[in-house]
Please model this.
Amino acid sequence: MTNQIKIHVLHTGLVKVDKALPFHGLYRNPLAFSGLLRSEKNQVTLPVSSYLIEHPKGLVLIDTGWNKQVRTSNWKELGLQVQINTGYLPTGWAVDERLKALGYRPEDLDYILLSHLHCDHVSGLKHVANAKKIMVSAPEWRTANHLPMVYLPSEWRGVNVQTYNYQNTGLGPTGESYDVFGDGSILQIHTAGHATGMSATLVRGSDGRYVLLAADVGYANRSWEEMLTPGICTSRKAAITSLGWVRDMAHDPNCIETLANHDTNTNQHIITLPY
Model:
């Protein structure tokens, strides 16, 4: 058994959105994030990240990026949501293709942990549906299956998705988290705001140092440094609280890296922690 935790930061697509979507606070028009009635010059292309964690207790994937369907038709994959985002998936970037390049098959995955169920995080789920366990928080699951205009339930239809309940642990902006292995090494931290049941993932080594995978609490590191909420939020107040918590964690001397899912300054790389 290995005595280390290895995090592979992977790009599993690109997404083109209005530049107001990542940084809502910079724009006066409250609907600018939607891109409606705004020109192409306002569009930016951002990476879509997933994270493969090689852990002594199991192989864990965080989020799945885009489905290969977007290579031929964004409309078939996203429907009306193409008005807000356009997906791109270069050859070799699909989540199962990334896994294969690292010597793994979908059925080798012990866990898929979905930070939340927006399309750019769950679109590729069916490519890895043979994972042993696929999980998302219970509040995110409830919300996503009742808001078909915001979420796309077809992306997980037929997939065995299980839910976990947050516990009152005092960790995170809401004081709620879920301990995946029961040893504090991988924690799903409730970070509401952008999505009701969204989780950031905290990966902690035996030396107390950690990596924080911040999902869409902010779209880039500047989000929490400048307190810029995403354009899409279920609660702007909760989003600000979550940003403040991430900022505090990012400034902690024990924090090795804090990663936003869509930061253009984040390249693929590997982070290693002792276990």
The domain at 4-274 is CATH 3.60.15.10 (Metallo-beta-lactamase; Chain A). The chain has a mean pLDDT of 94. The first helix runs from residue 74 to 78.
